[in-house]
Amino acid sequence: MFISKDLILILLLLILSSCNAERGSDSVGVGEQSEKQNITKVSSKDNQEHLDLIPPPRLIPVFDPEVETRGISDMDELSREFLVGVVTRDGLRIKNLVVTEQFYLEVLWPEFEKSIHMSSSKGEFHWELLRMKSMGGMLEKFDSYGWEHLEYKGTFFDSVEYYDGFKLHNKPLVEVKDKLTGETQMLELFGSVVELDNGTLKILSIPG
User: Fold this and answer.
1) Are 156 and 188 a contacting pair, CB within 8 Å?
2) Which end of the chain is more exposed for a tag (fewer CB within 10 A), N or C?
3) CB 194 within 8 A of CB 165
4) Regions of the chain where pLDDT drops below 50
5) Among 41, 97, 46, which residue's Cα sits nearest to residue 69?
6) Predicted pLDDT of residue 140
7) What are phi and psi of 61, to 5 degrees?
8) What is the pLDDT of residue 138?
9) Whole-model pTM?
């Protein structure tokens, strides 16, 4: 059978067109894949930038009573300030309400020593126990939730002990009202409160 040159040329053109179409299709596929890879990379970067915007967890300050305490002479103010410190998990705010080591050893311990007939060398030991108790109590309260729903109502004490230069208000209970349920309850937020003769109040300890 005789095939003309024109027919052969037409067949060659058709074959070339088919090959170019396949190459074009492959090129489009690679381009789409590359675009998808770029999108994935951009998304990963965006996620990292989003994570970078998230602030780190707030660290709770270590309880260190060697802080200048704030002078408060009103019991309601003292209790409210303590409650705010718990709600905001503000360790420094609470520490400013608690007695320091120097105050304990120079003002309180000499009087306690007389009443329990113990050597003054035991003062540092008792202070360390008190410090550890307060640190644990504060962190335990920081670990609890729902404080922001409580409304302060009042502070009540079981008894009062009198010493030379100060008196000790024992077993305080703080009355609060739950703003969500309307119920009231008594909480042991802090331990005994020292009241100096000049009226200044200082928290002795923070029970767990």
Assistant:
1) no
2) N
3) no
4) 21-48, 50-67
5) 97
6) 86
7) -60, 140
8) 86
9) 0.64
